[in-house]
Amino acid sequence: MKNPADLTLTEITRALRRRTFSSTELTQWMLERIARWQGVLNAFVRVEADEALAAAKAADRALARGSATGPLHGVPLAHKDMYYVKGKVSECGSKVRKGFVAPATSTALARLAAAGSFRIGALHMSEFAYSPTGHNTYLGPACNAWDRRCITGGSSSGSGTAVAARLVPAALGSDTGGSIRLPAHFCGVTGFKPTNGRVSRANALPLSFTLDTVGPLAVSAEDAGLIMSIIAGPDPLDPMTLGAPPWNMRRTRSSPKRLKIGVPAKFYVDDLEPDVAAALEATIDALRKLGAKISKVELPDQNAVSAAALIVLAVEAASAHAPWLRTRASDYGPQVRNRLQNGLAYSAVEYLEALRWRGPALAAHLDAISDNDVIIAPVSRSVAPTIESTDLGGAPEAEAAIQAITRFMRPVNFLGLPSLVVPAGQSKSGLPIGVQLIGRPFGDEVLIALGRAFQAETDHHRRVPALQ
Amino acid sequence: MPDDISSDRVLANARAARVPLNPDDPGRIARAVAPVAARLAAAKIELPLETEPASFLMVQRREIAP
Hints:
The structure holds two protein chains of two kinds. Chain A is α/β, with parallel strands linked by helices. Chain A has one domain (about 10-460): Alpha-Beta Complex (Amidase signature (AS) enzymes). Chain A contains 15 helices and eleven strands. Chain A has helices at about 10-15, 25-40, 50-65, 105-115, 155-165, 180-185, 220-230, 275-290, 300-325, 335-340, 350-355, 360-370, 400-405, 410-415, 445-455, and strands at about 45, 75-80, 120-125, 170-175, 190-195, 215-220, 260-265, 295, 375-380, 420-425, 430-440. In chain A, the strands form two sheets. An eight-stranded mixed beta sheet of chain A has the order 4-6-5-10-11-9-7-8, sandwiched between helices. A three-stranded mixed beta sheet of chain A has the order 1-3-2. In chain A, α8 (about 275-290) links the parallel β7 and β8 (about 295). The mean pLDDT of chain A is about 95. Chain B has three helices and no strands. Chain B is mainly alpha-helical. Chain B has one domain. The interface of A and B includes residues 341, 346 and 366 of A.
């Protein structure tokens, strides 16, 4: 059997259709790999081996009959444990929701199932999707597949490390303040945060109804585009998706020639670790060689945009959790409880001023980037720090540390922009470095096309950790 | 928006929200959020009277207008 760890999701779907291996063989291979590495990585919260094998056998029978169900036919996937499946437990990384049985299936998972994939388990996540590191008081930390002493990033911690270790070929994450992009950067995988409104959030755990987005972590940009082609689109259960354009797969294969890419003159380029700065420069050079036109841009005050994002997130998260903060505060981990309580500090007027500013702030951003199609930026100023150095719990310095890790994330969330993170290099210590390509509203497909072109010329996304 | 947040204010807000806090919490919360409030206050944002949260959608969807 060809080693599935060397394949992207797109290549796996082709191999299944060509019967290079069967869905059952693939699922057994994945279950063996999960069993081998789960104790090291803590990537899964549940493995559903029997159900996955039964689904794989059914997929093989259907393929033999010539009745494949869709583009992901026979592919086992796992997702962040916040996407509900009717009748299944979804604990959202928390003690508060221990034993919670979902009353309905999330639209995103229903669409992936309709495309022929099935679930092999559920993945680790930060408690209630409210931490950027991958620490979890209740579950213990997820560990980085490149170095188990390091964080995965969060909150889609299991998604990042599971894809990096090739325990699954792709996984859904969510991004409210960087929760897809940070694990993609720290774990060396491709991550895509879509434009707000592109993917339904229905029957997935909410954190901030203004800022939440659903998107994939995968091996390649092509894989991310494949997942997006399945999960994107209007859903009556999520009003934000109504009126958004349908996914345009043809546009994801367009040439990057003549694309205009802006490089921020400040904020995103201040105080980067040398390895991160070098990866960013190398990526800019590679994109220039692909025919993109590169120029400097002066963005509006990103500190103010980031602060507005923090206020909106803090208040909406506190509002969502207020019933449990009143009655079950001690069931939260200290850091998440503290952060939820932070949302109590702001007045209704302050919250609404921040929220009302969102439209004008986006207009100012679009004015500033002019006709640029893409802005290129780092994801974080450093590679993955250690679990120990970031294990701050409820300590007073935790909030400042979290804001430092998420510094380059929040403007994208506040402005509702799409952003693709592509692996772009490694540090001298062997840890991965990602770069984010930030698009215009609904310019999602342009980012996938650019990512595909970049990955056709580089092999950073093909690197698999040694898992020792 | 003020550029400072007091522990008294945090305590009053928490009471209004009916969320109990431990004695040390209001001070801790005030210290955690004050830098954020200060950063936004420094921007001196002035919004037209007519601006509402849904104005964001109008700007966002201009990009896909026919």
